[in-house]
Design a protein that fits this description.
Elements lengths: L5 H19 L21 E11 L7 E11 L6 E4 L5 E6 L2 E2 L1 E5 L2 E5 L9 E10 L8 E4 L4 E4 L20 E9 L3 E4 L2 E2 L5 E3 L2 E7 L11 E4 L1 E7 L5 E7 L3 H8 L2 H12 L9 E4 L13 E4 L1 H4 L5 H14 L6 E3 L5 H18 L5 H19 L23 H14 L1 H14 L3 E3 L1 H12 L4 H9 L19
Parallel strand pairs: 1-11, 19-20, 21-22
Antiparallel strand pairs: 1-2, 2-8, 3-7, 4-5, 4-8, 6-7, 9-10, 11-15, 12-16, 13-15, 14-15, 17-18
Helix pairs in contact: 3-5, 5-6, 6-8, 7-8, 8-9, 9-10
Protein name: Aminopeptidase N
Organism: Streptomyces subrutilus
GO molecular function: alanyl aminopeptidase activity; metallopeptidase activity; zinc ion binding
C-alpha cells in the first residue's frame, strides 16, 4: 500500500530510524565528565547555551508539571545525548523537533534522537516531565512553610530539571512559573518583558538571566512573599524576597545590602550582575546559599536569638562575595571549590574585622592552628576528599572555608597588600561570566606578582600539612592531629 500523506510517511520513517539506531547502538549508560569529586555529573559532547524552564505549582507536596527546553551546540557527532536527571517522571522528549527515544539509566536521562547530530550541529531539546519536591532532603527543592525554594549546590539541580549539571557548562536561563492566586513566584534575573499573566485562579511569572549561570545557582521561590525593591550603588536594582508577614521585621536587615555592595565594590570592582537581593525563607536548611542574584537565607538567622548583629552582617557579606567568587567566576571542577568558599570567607572575615568585633589576625591565627587537623580530616583545600555517598554537604568542610581563606592570607603576606589587591580585582575582571580553576589562579597571581608563585602556593594548596606562615614566626607550627 502506498502512503498518500507526507506527514504520515515522515512519522513512519522517523520511527523506523529510531528502531534501526537502537538496534546498532550499545545499551544506554550514564556518563560524566570525570570531575574528581562528582565523576557522574556533567555530560560530554555538547555545550548548553540556554535553558527555558516551565513549572506549574500546586502545593509543596505535589510534583510540579514541568517542561525543560535546552538549546545547545554539539561539540562532536552525537548518536545519543545524556542529560543529568532524576527524581521526576518523563512523559516525552523531542530533539530538533522530532520525537526521541529516552531511557533513565542511573541518574542520567539518555536520549536517542531520530537522526544523529553532527559536530557543530544545533541541539534543541524539549522534555516534558514532573519535578518532585518530596523525599530527599539533600538538595533540589526545599519545602518552606508556605511554598518552595531551591538549593541545588553542589549536585542537585538535576533533581529539579534535566540539565548538564556541572558548573563548567554555564548557560542563560528563562523561568516560567505558574502558581495559584495569592502566591508570588520569583527566580534569578529580571522579570520578563510582559507583566505576570493571570488566567483564572493562577498566575504565570517569567524571569530571565542576563548573564550565564551554573545549574547549581538556579533559584525559584514560590510562596506568600513580599518583593521589596530598592536601589543600590550606581543605580543597581535591588530586589529582596521575604515572607509577607515578616516584611517590617526584616526591613532593617534589607537596608544593609547597599552598604555591603559598596564595601565589596571598593575591594574587587563593580558588582557583576543585573540585580541583587536576599531571599529569606521560612525554612530550616542549616546553610545559606549564594544562588545567583538572589542569595538564599534561613529566616531564623535574622530572627533567632544568639546571633549578634556583626555575625549576621558578615554572613550576608559572605553570600554577596560569592556573586563575584563562585557565581560570576565559576569553578572549573568541584575540587576548585576553595576558590569560591575561601574568597567568600576572606571577605566575610575582613568585613567582621572592619566592624571591630573579630579581628582578621585572630581568625587567621586560629585557622592556622587547626589547619593540619582539617587537612588530615578532609584533604588539603585544593584537593578535598569526596563527601560520603548521600552526604554531599560533607564536602563543605572547614578546609575549604577558613582553611582556604588562610591561603589568601598567606598569599597577601608573601606578595604584599597592593599586589594581592591587584590579583583579586584582575581575577574577577578577567574571568567574569566564565569558568576558572586553581591553575588559572596560580598563573594570574604569578603574573601580577612578577614571579612564579607556583612553588610557594603548591604546598598551601595541596600539601598534607600547612607550611610556615610568611612574616609570622610567632605563630609557630599548626597543632598535629
Amino acid at each position: 500500500m502506498q502512503l498518500s500523506s507526507p506527514r504520515l510517511r515522515a512519522a513512519l520513517l522517523a520511527a523506523a530510524s529510531l528502531t534501526l539506531v537502537a538496534a546498532v547502538l550499545p545499551p544506554p549508560a550514564p556518563l560524566g565528565i570525570g570531575d574528581p569529586l562528582f565523576p557522574a555529573l556533567g555530560n560530554p559532547g555538547y555545550d548548553v547555551l540556554a535553558y527555558d524552564l516551565s513549572f506549574t505549582y500546586k502545593d509543596n507536596r505535589t510534583p510540579l508539571d514541568a517542561v525543560t527546553v535546552i538549546d545547545a551546540r554539539a561539540e562532536r557527532p552525537l548518536e545519543r545525548i545524556n542529560l543529568d536527571f532524576t527524581h521526576g517522571k518523563v512523559a516525552s522528549v523531542e530533539v530538533n523537533g522530532e520525537p526521541a527515544r529516552f531511557e533513565g539509566v542511573g541518574e542520567d536521562l539518555v536520549l536517542t534522537p531520530a537522526r544523529p547530530v553532527p559536530r557543530g550541529g544545533r541541539l534543541h531539546i524539549g522534555v516534558r516531565h514532573t519535578s518532585d519536591p518530596r523525599g530527599r532532603g539533600d538538595g533540589g527543592w526545599v519545602p518552606t512553610e508556605d511554598g518552595l525554594a531551591m538549593a541545588n549546590q553542589a549536585d542537585a539541580a538535576h533533581r529539579v530539571f534535566p540539565c548538564n549539571d556541572h558548573p563548567s557548562d554555564k548557560a542563560l536561563f528563562t523561568f516560567r512559573i505558574t502558581a495559584p492566586a495569592g502566591l508570588t513566584a520569583v527566580a534569578n534575573g529580571v522579570p520578563g518583558t510582559f507583566p505576570a499573566h493571570r488566567s483564572g485562579s493562577a498566575t504565570t511569572w517569567t524571569y530571565r538571566t542576563l548573564h550565564p549561570m551554573a545549574t547549581e545557582l538556579a533559584q525559584v521561590s514560590i510562596g506568600r512573599s513580599a518583593v521589596v525593591h530598592a536601589t543600590g550603588p550606581h543605580g543597581l536594582p535591588l530586589r529582596d524576597v521575604v515572607p509577607a508577614a515578616d516584611r517590617e521585621l526584616l526591613d532593617p536587615w534589607l537596608k544593609k545590602t547597599p552598604g555591603h555592595i559598596a564595601w565589596m565594590e571598593e575591594r574587587v570592582g563593580r558588582y557583576p550582575f543585573e540585580n541583587y537581593g536576599v531571599l529569606i525563607a521560612r525554612a530550616t536548611t542549616g546553610f545559606e546559599l549564594e544562588t545567583q542574584t538572589l542569595s538564599l537565607f534561613e529566616r531564623g538567622i535574622f530572627t533567632g536569638e544568639g546571633y549578634p548583629e556583626w555575625y549576621v552582617e558578615s554572613v550576608m557579606v559572605h553570600e554577596l562575595a560569592h556573586q563575584w567568587f563562585g557565581d560570576s567566576v565559576s569553578p572549573r571542577s568541584w575540587s576548585d571549590l576553595w576558590l569560591n568558599e575561601g574568597h567568600a570567607t576572606w571577605y566575610e572575615a575582613l568585613y567582621a574585622d572592619g566592624l571591630g568585633t573579630y579581628s582578621l589576625e585572630r581568625r587567621m591565627r586560629e585557622a592556622y592552628q587547626r589547619s593540619d587537623q582539617w587537612r588530615a580530616a578532609g584533604g588539603p583545600p585544593a584537593a578535598p576528599k569526596p563527601a560520603a555517598p548521600g552526604e554531599k554537604i560533607g564536602l563543605f568542610r572547614p578546609a575549604v572555608y577558613d582553611g582556604a581563606a588562610l591561603i589568601l592570607y598567606a598569599l597577601r603576606q608573601e606578595v604584599g597588600a597592593a599586589v594581592f589587591d591587584r590579583i583579586e580585582r584582575r581575577w574577577v575582571a578577567e574571568h567574569k561570566d566564565g569558568v576558572a580553576g586553581t591553575a588559572d589562579f596560580v598563573r594570574l597571581a604569578s603574573r601580577e606578582a612578577g614571579r612564579d608563585l607556583g612553588p610557594f602556593l603548591e604546598p598551601w594548596l595541596y600539601g598534607p600539612t600547612t607550611p610556615a606562615m610568611p612574616g609570622r614566626p610567632e605563630w609557630g607550627t599548626p597543632k598535629s592531629v
